């Protein structure tokens, strides 16, 4: 008789436990806890994007500006110093709408994903109008460069 009571109690306890787990999962789904939030909407261009749309290679497009280069080294102190300088320089370029200068940030294969996101976040905060992501590099620029527009005009779309 006691064995039957134990089996009955254990079966009820296990059913209640399973229902509790299922209700927690349903509550999480109902509250949309698995949806992605606060993300960047980045569309990376194809390899021939600049050639197809501007009749110029990326190298030629970048040759119309003077870039100040920074390289992340994966050392916390050095990278923090670089991020501080970057933010200040980006702010100056955007505020002055500098069409002759830009910033080039070099990454390497050991660069942490958080550092890349941090640079994109700085660009978003400082309202950078143009930045180009290409392999392990980010080129940040502001202002309209007249030489670039003259030498590499944008093709008209065929719509």
Under CATH at level 1, the class of the largest domain stands as Alpha Beta
Summing up helix and strand content along with how strands pair, one would put the structural category as alpha+beta
Specify the overall morphology.
Answer: elongated
Q: Strand fraction band?
A: 5-15%
Helix run count: 6
Please tally the β strands and state the result. Answer: 4
**Can you list the strand order of the major beta sheet?**
1-2-4-3
What is the element string, with H for helices and E for strands?
HHHEHEHEEH
Overall tally of domains = 2
Q: What does the radius of gyration come to?
A: 26 Å
For the termini, the CA-CA separation is 83 Å
Transmembrane segments: 7-29
Keywords: Membrane, Transmembrane, Transmembrane helix
Describe the structure.
The chain is α+β, with helices and mostly antiparallel strands. It has 2 domains: 1-34; 49-151, Ribosomal Protein S8, Chain: A, domain 1 (2-Layer Sandwich), CATH 3.30.1370. The protein has 6 helices and 4 strands, in the order αααβαβαββα. A 4-stranded mixed β-sheet has the order 1-2-4-3, with helices on one face. Strand 3 (130-134) and strand 4 (137-141) form a beta hairpin. The protein is elongated. The model has no long low-confidence stretch (mean pLDDT 84).
